[in-house]
Design goal:
Blueprint: H1 22-35, E1 44-47, H2 55-58, E2 67-70, H3 74-84, H4 87-93, E3 96-98, E4 113-118, H5 127-140, E5 141-150, H6 184-192, E6 196-200, E7 212-217
Parallel strand pairs: 1-2, 1-4, 2-3, 4-5
Antiparallel strand pairs: 5-7, 6-7
Bound molecules: S-adenosylmethionine.
S-adenosylmethionine binds at residues 16-17, 25, 47-50, 53-54, 70-73, 76, 101, 103, 119-121, 124, 167, 171-172.
Length: 218
């Protein structure tokens, strides 16, 4: 999709969040993964990897071919490779990408993932889309896999549970920003239905009002 006002790809300047948080939100992704056992042989699926805000920190640390990003805005990935990875790092680590918008990791088969991450994705994704991510975790995760998803918990006065069916915010289909909330109660139920359990991570810093939710198999 092209922006009719300047003929550039939609959201060409988008960095995945507020520019002032770019480094902090990126580094926090690596730090949280390290807390949950990331090692060089880990296999990481980054749902909605954008322009590699997190990938630029994760890719150098893990073995070649083990970072897989799902991102429907192809130009975001191209920007990430051009601006946030050196050509040498890209050639050495060979990150893999797919551009489907169904959160479907089967494009990376037969890889089974030890780690899944979704940073600033559940703050825009509908419950149906979160369900798609959870289904992918069940289908393509190792037995002891972990899924770290940042999200905006519902709040009493401002922050109602989102029940719409569509993505809210910038994407391959929209140049409009937007943020949504999901209740931990619903998340736990959606996880339990799939043999997963979810808990709010308490020890990590909260960047941009988004704590982490930690999801594992039961
Ligand atoms: C707020 S940005 C966060 C990007 C990245 N995780 C980061 O930390 O910078 C949300 C990203 O999700 C992507 N996205 C939107 N719809 C998607 C879908 N259906 N499947 C996968 N990614 C999607 C957007 O294109 C955008 O790059």
């Amino acid at each position: 999709m092209t922006d009719p006002t300047n003929d550039k790809p939609i959201n060409a300047a988008f960095l995945g969040g507020p520019p002032q948080d770019f480094d902090r939100a990126g580094r926090e992704q690596l730090a949280a993964l390290l807390d949950y056992g990331l090692v060089p042989t880990s296999t990481v699926c980054d749902f909605g990897c954008g322009c590699l805000r997190g990938g630029k920190w994760i890719i150098p640390l893990i073995d070649a071919g083990n970072y897989c990003g799902l991102e429907p805005m192809e130009h975001m990935v191209e920007k990430g490779i051009a601006e946030f990875l050196t050509p040498e790092m890209n050639a050495l680590k060979h990150p893999r990408f797919d551009h489907n918008d169904r959160f479907d990791c089967s494009a990376f088969a037969p890889t089974r993932f030890t780690h899944f991450i979704a940073r600033s994705i559940w703050s825009h994704a509908s419950k149906r889309q979160i369900g798609q991510m959870l289904d992918s975790v069940v289908a393509h995760g190792t037995d002891d896999c972990v899924f770290l998803a940042s999200w905006r918990p519902t709040r009493l006065l401002a922050g109602r549970d989102y029940w719409g069916d569509e993505w809210v915010g910038k994407s391959h289909e929209s140049a409009e920003g937007g943020l949504i909330y999901h209740s931990l109660k619903w998340i736990r139920r959606a996880c339990a239905e799939r043999g997963l359990r979810a808990q709010r991570m308490r020890h990590r810093v909260v960047v941009n009002d988004q704590p982490w939710c930690l999801i594992r198999r039961r």
